[in-house]
Specification:
Layout lengths: L3 H6 L4 E2 L5 H6 L11 H4 L1 H13 L4 E2 L8 H4 L8 H16 L3 E6 L13 H17 L4 E7 L2 H14 L3 E6 L2 E3 L2 E3 L6 H11 L3 E5 L4 H14 L5 E5 L5 E3 L2 E3 L4 H14 L3 E4 L5 H17 L1
Parallel strand pairs: 1-12, 2-3, 3-4, 4-5, 5-8, 8-9, 9-12
Antiparallel strand pairs: 6-7, 10-11
Length: about 300
Amino acid sequence: MGKIAEELKKGKKMVSDGAWGTFLYQKGMKPGECPDAWSVDRFDDVVDIAKSYIDAGADMVEANSFGGTCFKLEHFGLQDKVSEINEAAAKASRQAAGDKYVIASVGPTGKMLMMGDVTEEELYDAFKEQVIALEKGGADAVCVETMSDAGEAALAIKAAKENTGLEVIATFSFEKGKNGYRTMMGLTPEAAAEAALDAGADIIGTNCGNGIERMIEIVKEMKEAYPDALILVHANAGLPENIDGQDVFPETPEMMAGMVEGLLDAGANVVGGCCGTTPAHIAAIKNVVNDYNTKH
C-alpha cells in the first residue's frame, strides 16, 4: 500500500468513513461517558464500528481518538491514559481495516491559545503524546479535524510531522455567514488551507458543520487558492433540523450521493461523512466515486 497522497496524485478519487458518535450511542454509550475510553473498555464494539465502514466500501477509516489529548481526557480523570487509549483506538481500526488505510482522528483540545489558556509548547506536547501512540497502534495517517484556529492546527500537524512517519490530513469546520465561510476563529477556507499547508499537511480539507452542497463552495475556495492541494471532505448529512428536541440530519444516502459528483468536480479527492452519516451513506457515496473513477 502506497501513501494516500501518492495514490490521490495518480488521479484516483477515494472514499472515507462516516459518523462515529451516533454509532457509539447506539451501542450503549451513556451521556457523560468518555467516547475515547471505549477503545480500551469496549474494544470489540469499536472494531465493529470501523469494520462497518470498511464493509460499506471505505478506502480509509478513522480511529476512535477524536478527544484523545490529555486536555480532553482530563475531563474524565483519564489524562494519564493518553498512550493506552490512543494506541488501542488505532489498533481497533487497524484490525478492522485490513489492507485499507487508518486515518486516526485528532480533534481540538478545547484550549484557546489566544486566551492564554495554554502555551504553544503545552499544546504541541499534548499532540505529540497522542500521535506517537496512534502510530504505535498502527495508524497510517492522522486526521487533524474540526479545527477552527490556525495556531492549534499547525501545532498538531507539526507534532505529527516531527515525531512520527504518519501522513497528515488537516480539516477545518466552517460556518456560512454574511461574509462567506469562516471558522469559529474567523479563518476563511483560503487562510485555513494556507495554515495547514505551511505547517506541512499532506492533505487538507473540511469536515462537519455543512452538508455536501455547501462543502462544494468551500472546496472551490481552497482549490482556487491552492490548485495542487489534495482535499478531503467529511460532510454532514445536510444541516441539522431540530425535531422534538433532537438534532436530526435530513439527507438520505441517495440525497448525499446525488451531490458527490459535483463535489469531485469541484476538486475534492476524498469524500466521507461526518454527523448523521451511516454505512449506508458511505456505500452510496462509494458507488458514485467508483463510477467517477471509471469515467475519468
